[in-house]
Amino acid sequence: MPDSSRNMFWQSLDVGKDARSTLKGQKTLCLWFTGLSGAGKSTLANLLEKRLHETGRHTYLLDGDNIRQGLNRDLGFTEADRVENIRRVAEVARLMTDAGLIVLVSFISPFRAERRMARALFEPGEFLEVFVDAPLAECERRDPKGLYAKARRGELKDFTGIDSAYEVPENPELMVNTQQCSAAECAEMIIERILRA
Amino acid sequence: MPDSSRNMFWQSLDVGKDARSTLKGQKTLCLWFTGLSGAGKSTLANLLEKRLHETGRHTYLLDGDNIRQGLNRDLGFTEADRVENIRRVAEVARLMTDAGLIVLVSFISPFRAERRMARALFEPGEFLEVFVDAPLAECERRDPKGLYAKARRGELKDFTGIDSAYEVPENPELMVNTQQCSAAECAEMIIERILRA
User: Please, which residues bridge with residue A104 across strands?
Assistant: First the structure.
């Protein structure tokens, strides 16, 4: 960690978060989708963004796969790299809420500690943890990217649910079960919760 | 560089950049302010954001000092870290234009290669390099953060303009001289150029 803080100054800016979100006519939010690969996080986040956009909300979706091809292209899948992956995404999500947006973040983010770290960057009530739940067997059956098959064959190491833990959220603001409900139904539940807030 | 690309899939999303910027009634832009420390980049970017905000534009300002306290807090000032600093900021700016925003980036970004790398992430016409010019002697006289004095005393290494080069932009889209013009005048020139585009 560089000892550079003494030469850093927080640049105070005239246009702040309130001004930016007021212009957009909305309250800023970070919707953090966590769950196993194949649980339906991205499908759900995408559907939800579409619905929010239709109602005139200003949104952005940060997706694990997409971010790893740009900002986080230097990171692999060691534990340290996975933590750094989440740290950076959380920081970008914070910048985007600061910009007045409703940000949807779709990352496996298997560890409680890293989700807590992400939450800590936001104001109270701004961060909503959405647990996208589906049994491992069901996720493995879906296996939309063929990753579970690879992990079972030993071609992928540290794969969440197989040889790396997924720590179930203890107090998520929202929980949807994509085995019991369709993506559309899950999206509806979340929309209602957001509009109520 | 991790060999993970084979397990990455670009998640196609329904709400795209056009939809996001249309909702905001604006064309996306990245205004990249480059220049010596003390040249007036942040003052100018801040003033410009204020003016843009007043005209209903949806903006965000990424500022060197602020980003180094969050997203890039793990980076120091070695050459490799400075390149990584700019790479990440450019990626975040790209995500923000993808979100439909007009992004103002205020970083010394002394090297042509890194500004070229940043530019390459954007669509043609979307990236405007703004050279905030002021003579070194004038920047050193202003020295708003006392950094030149420290660098001269040898307490800061690799300080741009003192013992690290600043490569003057060869073909910036915009150039303002903060010794000859006030910040307000410079902002006006840039506003006119943007509204004309």
Answer: A31, A61
- Is the C-alpha dihedral spanning A41, B92, B195, A22 positive or negative? positive
Which residues pair with residue A103 across a beta bridge? A30, A60
A109 is catalytic: yes
Residue B45, domain extent? 24-135+165-196
Which of A9, A13, A61 shows the shortest C-beta gap to B13?
A61
pLDDT at residue A4 above 60?
no
* Mean pLDDT computed over A19-31: 92
**Residue at A56: amino acid letter:** G
pLDDT tens digits, B49-91 = 999 999 999 999 999 877 989 999 999 888 889 899 999 999 9
- CB atoms inside a 10 Å sphere around CB A66: 21
Closest listed residue to residue B64, CA positions, set B105, B31, B122, B35: B105
**pLDDT of B105 strictly over 90:** yes
Residue B157 lies in a domain: no
Q: Lowest-pLDDT range, A47-56, B9-18, B179-188?
A: B9-18
Q: Total structural domains in chain A?
A: 1
Write the residue in B65, B92, B95 that is nearest to A8 by C-beta. Answer: B65
Tokens of B24: 């905001």
| Closest B-chain CA to A121 | B70
Residue A142 lies in a domain: no
Would you place residue A12 in the very low, low, confident or very high pLDDT band (cuts 50, 70, 90)? low
The one catalytic residue among A4, A42, A109, A164: A109
Whether B109 is in a domain gets the answer yes
Assign residue B175 the CATH number of its domain. Answer: 3.40.50.300
Mean pLDDT of B145-158: 93
